[in-house]
Amino acid sequence: MIWQNHHQQSITVAVSGSGGSGALTAGFILLAAAQRCGRYGLMMRSAGPQVRGGESVAILRVGPSTVTNIGDRVDLLAALDWRNIERFQDELALDVNSLILHDNEAGAVPSGIAASGAEQRPIDFGHRAAEHNGGRANMIVVGVLGGEMGLPLQALLDATDAVLGKKAPAAVDAAKACIATGHRGTARQTESEPSTAPAAAQRWRLSGNAAAGLGALRAEVGFVAAYPITPASEMLEWLAPRLERAGGTLLQAEDELAAVNMLIGASFGGVPAVTATSGPGLSLMTEGIGLAVASETPILVVNVARGGPSTGLPTKSEQADLNQALYGLHGDAPHLVLAPLDVGDCAYTVEWGSRLAERLQTAAILLSDQALGQTHAVIDPPPRCPPVLGRKWASATSAPAQTDRLTDRRPDSATPTSTFARYAPSADGISPMPSPGTPGFEYTADGLAHNAQGTPSSSASDHREQLSKLMHKLTAHDYGDAWARIDRGNLAAEPADTAISLLTWGSSWGAVQEAATRLREQGLQVQSIGLRLLAPLQHDQLSLAIAGTQVLVVEINATGQLFRYLNAERVLPPSARSFARPGPLPLRPSEVIAQLQLQRPQPDADKNHAGGGDEHASESLQAADVGGGY
């Protein structure tokens, strides 16, 4: 059995149960124990759409090196009961090499689960837990799975203290007793591995939403206004006490319309501002985001996307909000669109997005999703974003006295006049912004088309001048190498005709990167590219990165939104293909490999179809429309 192979690089386990069974708590303890042993890992949670309670599944993958996706299959499934398990059947990728641990008291293994061919092993979770006063079956599961995963008992017990520390001592003692009972007699129980490895102190355990909150603190955000919505609320919950300790303010608005306009007001006053929402909330915020663009008031909107349309899939993930982020504002409204690539990258990209919005005096939309936001991971500490100059202030007397190692908040010189030109064109497109009420620097900031002084104007020349300014400041900025993460692997400086570029964005990055690694092991030249800055698109850099390679664009939505966008921007070669399928299932590396091997074009595809690029694009888009390959 695979899970008994000590040379296996990673192992994936799952715990399922109905509401109140503690499936997620079991997963959190296992992840914390893996961290204490110096391993990496991540835990994806899946739940139904209920407001509270209901069935849930924790899927956990751990290994000795960085883990960025859930893998291809579940090695071990521990089922506390079978209630509504059919809702998770597609997510529990079991096969003949998997093992199902189940309680006979819960009944027979459902036919849909048994059809996987996985080995079945009954264990009396409930009866064994009853041996201990206050014992819980989920803690027996922790002990059994921990032993099968090779986690030392002491690491599991220490992790239990960390996760259940706020519970009554009697409850914690009962949990530990159950874990010790479950751990005894398992196939791989061992104490040969230290219960606390030196590397453990260097690793962080956090969710993508918490990492996003950290990025906001690193960016010196001083104001957050938001309305709770799944799956973004945890970012706000994480930020609430920490932002206050940092001297900032978090306010729960009455709705998303109010939240985005509160952001604009705070930012107009000189305070960096952020909100977090999901697809339905982003829809309500779009008019306010347009006001931020028109008035050149910096804000950052973090969209933790879920499946749609409408209320859609509140607890599931999908990368289907890209079109809304790119094109959802009415009129020509140039703005920033960014996307983090993994849990740790949520901190990096939120910080970078906020600092870019401040410098460029614009709105930024950041596209996270449920698969990133609600996934908990053991990672190396996320790096800081590259240096970005701070907001360009209009006068020394009105500039906040704030500096740090990443920013330069020193004001630009400006002379107060009765006709202060707040929106005057400049070489970089960025005009100095005064603090409100500064004598000699008064101006109008609203959503009407205006001239350089901010005076409302319907003049064609003023309109052209201001639209040009809005676009120029975004395209003229130097974003450095942060626009994407590129893993060239074994790709030669001058790639062969058979070289492959796997191009993706957001939460699909982890599975795509692992697929590229496996393909290299098969002797192929493959690089993976994850776009972090989606708008403005870095045409020259992306064209250079994919030059001479066969391109496969990978994403989790039904219509190939990134593929269509890149084709509209004329950055892809005619032979480029799209692998797009809808959520809510997580992307697995084997899917990417299978699609590439099934549909890989011939090396001379571009030559055979010279002048036929539009035909190729049409075929790819039609495949994407039906959720197929490319």
Can you offer a commentary on this structure?
- The protein has helices spanning 23-36, 111-114, 125-130, 137-148, 153-164, 169-183, 208-218, 233-245, 256-268, 279-295, 322-327, 343-360, 370-373, 460-475, 509-521, 539-546, 561-568, 589-599, 605-608, 613-625; strands at residues 11-17, 40-47, 56-63, 76-79, 99-102, 119-122, 204-207, 223-226, 249-252, 273-277, 299-305, 336-338, 363-369, 376-379, 484-487, 500-505, 526-531, 533-535, 550-555, 577-580.
- With 630 residues, the protein is an alpha/beta fold.
- The longest helix has 18 residues, at 343-360.
- The radius of gyration is 26 Å and the shape is globular.
- Mean pLDDT is 89; it is low at 1-7, 396-411 and 605-630.
Strand order of the largest sheet: 6-5-4-1-3-2-14-7
Number of strands: 20
Characterize the overall form. globular
| Helix run count | 20
Helix and strand composition category:
alpha/beta
Mean pLDDT: 89
Distance between the termini: 35 Å
Strand content: 15-25%
Tell me the Rg in angstroms. 26 Å
Low-confidence stretches: 1-7, 396-411, 605-630
Overall helicity: 25-40%
What is the makeup of the main sheet? Answer: 8 strands, mixed
